[in-house]
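YM 10:42: Vanillate O-demethylase monooxygenase subunit sequence, as discussed on the call
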Amino acid sequence: MAFLRNTWYMIGWANELDIGFVHRTIVNENILAYRLSDGSIAAIEDRCPHRFVPLHKGRQIGDVIECGYHGLCFGADGSCVKNPVEGAIIPKAARVRTFPAVSRYGVLWVWLGDPAAADPSSIVNLDFLVDPKRSTVQGYMPTRANYELAIDNLSDLTHVQYVHSEFQASEVFHKLKSEVFQEGNTITTRLTLPNGKPAAVYSNAVGGLDAPIDLVNEVEWHAPSVAILRVRGYRPGDRSESLFDVKSAHIISAESQGTCHYFFGNTRDFALGDHKVDEQIKQWQRTAFIEQDKPMLEAQQAFLGDRDLFDLHPVLLHTDAGSVRIRRALRKLIEDERDAAVPK
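YM 10:58: structure's back
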């Protein structure tokens, strides 16, 4: 399976480095990320070239990583900087690959393509994750499913009526309006549920569940796998001011063809600093994502195996328009990158 490489992938949350280094497989690359003494981020191949033991089995000493098997030490530039045996030669081949890495918006990003093309300004703007006027709750869910299946799940939120029915089902689901907008390679899907009582999950935001609202869900996709989900409630027919604004980032980094890393960060503009609400959201995340979405995605992947969803010619509904457009845009970007790499 081909992946987009000249792009930034999330490898973890920046606060994970507070307790040590981060190691994950991203697009079949084993990567170890850690913070240097100057505060910058280093990312190196998580594999000692001596006996191929993962370097995360070792330890960080200052700005170098010491292999836990035989003690070779590697710097942020990938070179072996120390052989623990005094006077022993360090072989020229004793080095590991490196990857450009930065921390932005509380997220650790790594670049897997041409290092010369790694421009941090191209990272999707997720400043709402660190906005002091919002409260943020983070999470992570390793998933045995292709990352595109997770994107499909996000770009068609009609699934919440059934998968998350006990706390997100809408009494006006039959009246929903589905729209898709595209600007360049940014694709937005909008789902509007008009003039209905709010679902249970929004009780803290509206102070009760009796008064009807217009509920607007928008998912803004950025290649290859960043989705910004915005959920707003309005008084029926009045878009002048929202009753609540919940904005979250869903970042799905491919691990392999059939597995992915699903990171999510939920932010809100109400109940700021309320730890009780934070815990309620964490419980909702555990229930909705880990107990409900994850088993559905993994069951889907188990059936598909190595096959692509569209190779099986699925029946398409009008609410699939966004996910279809996203898949086509992603394919085009991957093909263009592959073609550009072919010598002329």
